[in-house]
Amino acid sequence: MSTSARKLPKAAAKWTSTDSAELYRVDSWGAPYFSINPAGRVVAHPVDDAGIAIEVPAVVAEMRKRGVELPALIRFQDILSLRVRSLNEAFSAAIAEAGYAGRYRGVYPIKVNQLHEVVDEVLEAGRQFGLGLECGSKAELTAALANLPDDETLLVCNGVKDQAMLSMMIAAQQLGRNVLPVIERYFEYETLKRLAFSKSFVPKFGVRVRLATSGSGRWADSSGLNSKFGLSLPELMRLVEELEASGTTDRLQLLHCHVGSQIADIAVLKQATREVTQIYAALTKRGIGLTYLDVGGGLGVNYDEGHVSDDAGINYSIEEYANAVVFTVKEVCDGHGVAMPTLVTESGRAITAHHSVLIVPVLAAQSRDELPTDSNVAADAHDSVKGLAIVLEAIPGLERMRELLEAFHDAKERQEETRTLFTLGYLTIDERAIADQLFWSICRQLLGRLTASIDGAPPPEVGEIEALLTDQYLCDFSVFQSMLDHWAIGQPFPIMPIDGLDVQPERRGVLVDITCDSDGKVSQYISSHPDNSFLPLHEIDGSAPYYLGFFLMGAYEDIMGDAHNLFGRVTEAHVYADASEPGQFWIEKIIPGTAVQDMLAQVQYFPNDLQRRMSEVVRGKIQAGVVRPSVGMEILDQYMACFQQSTYCGTDDFEQEFD
Asked: What is the pTM of this model?
């Protein structure tokens, strides 16, 4: 790789892991679960024991030893337990401090990550706290019903419900399960009434109300009066009047609202909580038998507080979130003299985001081609090419900022001239290649001289040259499969090397994936550099594999992936902390990623049919004398072996180059 990219300024005479932690803003998004140790390795702290520190490169090494190909997910399952406990303990502390005369019963919305292993871990961690589940579709309902640990565990059923779903929820109540369908649209209540009549069983249920308060952050526009779901206040009062007329006011047991995912501002949460509690108090005073007040999801995660964008962070802690809910509900209930409800929250992102780390190998790095030091421009070269050579030769003698900027403008003009001449057929392809090399060499030298001459704000040309000289790092993953939120809505995720962080990363890199789509790239990054369009990285010298860690991947990304180019799910390893084990961890299980044959079957290409077709092709070529029988069978075996392989580039072949 050439040295075309600008070297980032050093924070100290000798770069340390502390400098890397500041560069990648690890404390902003990773504390207390991730850090960088003095040896320059990323470390996970998945349990409260300060003596436990698991080096992520050691986990990767163990996975490779077991034959796991990358990219792969590492799930630090203990972090799930830690997050569940932190949330429940925050509410317990707030309830005790406020003197709140009610309980807290959180539910985990499985849409955030429906993977069975994740749901099992969350439920097990939440068993002592009475943690329940939330579902929003027929498939999620089917999965959740069979996984409720007991009759006390709450299952909140949101989303649009057809007759089959509502009928199953009623059946679950007949079995004694604590299942509450939440009415999102008025027709659902009418369907529920018909089913209750046919079954001679009056079910309990909840209702979602559409608030005037809008959320904050990325999803603010989907909340408030523009919310996709929920009853308006006139609809709610119509439902209440029907309950009063039928003498079934005790069946409405849960009042629900949702302000949006990733609430950025605690003040918005307080306002929404106050509004929904006023509705709760008014209904309670009318004799409605509400037991639960569900303030929905929205507990956010700091992807990078206030640096990349306002949407990337939150201005509160878990403790402040719990205090805001508890104290606000208590104040309103006290003011109206009504009983305090059991509080319910639907926190999914805050529970799952931290536990999952995607490990991605860098396959190659592409930088700008400079003119080799031993190359000369031919005497008979076109004048435009010679003009670029003259600019390059003149740079060492330029001192003033104005002269350096003029040289850059001159080089740009001449470079554009060479491209036009080549397009019109007046420049040979060899001359065009040399012109490109000259231009990139000019940019590299000018950038070094310009940055050394800057006194105050840099001129815009510096940013332009930096962008021109940024390297592309080709990474073995698919943005569409593993980072769909980044591609779709610009969600930033923390990314950094997992090793070598005691050495300064001096390259400016843009990460591109292995899909055939120009959108298959990471377009914004989290670092302390004011320009978030690139990621500081090390030079790829070919001596060892270079692995990047993509952090906070546990919420939504695991489950929302798109099969662009038929890239499938990656392999995952479930890791637990244990001080008695080598490296202080052990791998409970490894779940293989999607094989080629599995992805093909999803789009109706079936292995048996494909193998038969290919066998006919090969046998035809053998009979025609195109290939010898032994060669033909070898080709067929090679084709058939692909069905069992990973959809990604083979890590074994990649790492053999380093060996």
From this structure: 0.90
